[in-house]
């Protein structure tokens, strides 16, 4: 289900839904299981292709998942008012993971006119916290200026 910040269901990601699970998300295997303006959940399976040299989940994957989940959540909340872009990502790695399915859940800390702050918690199949991150998003209402 996709729900916008004004509580209506439907077109919060209109024109953007086709990009979910694409790009880097596809390389990681990230699958979105819940998308609302107040929470986003996604899962992926740890595979050897996502390991760092010590044979555990690469920390960059955690950072990318944290940013993806926060960005999708922020986009849904902002709705048709514009796009969001990440401007800061701080992710802590708390428990090494070699295999299994991980779940990321993003919840808002602050949602304002110009910026948002989201916390994303990543847990393993035993519901143990393996990583936790915070992403600050800028709300961009003049979408023609992104990347210019």
From TrEMBL:
<dbReference type="Pfam" id="PF03061">
    <property type="entry name" value="4HBT"/>
</dbReference>
<feature type="domain" description="Thioesterase">
    <location>
        <begin position="55"/>
        <end position="131"/>
    </location>
</feature>
<dbReference type="InterPro" id="IPR003736">
    <property type="entry name" value="PAAI_dom"/>
</dbReference>
<comment type="similarity">
    <text>Belongs to the thioesterase PaaI family.</text>
</comment>
<dbReference type="GO" id="GO:0061522">
    <property type="term" value="F:1,4-dihydroxy-2-naphthoyl-CoA thioesterase activity"/>
</dbReference>
<keyword id="KW-0378">Hydrolase</keyword>
<protein>
    <submittedName>
        <fullName>Uncharacterized domain 1-containing protein</fullName>
    </submittedName>
</protein>
<dbReference type="InterPro" id="IPR006683">
    <property type="entry name" value="Thioestr_dom"/>
</dbReference>
<dbReference type="InterPro" id="IPR029069">
    <property type="entry name" value="HotDog_dom_sf"/>
</dbReference>
<dbReference type="GO" id="GO:0005829">
    <property type="term" value="C:cytosol"/>
</dbReference>
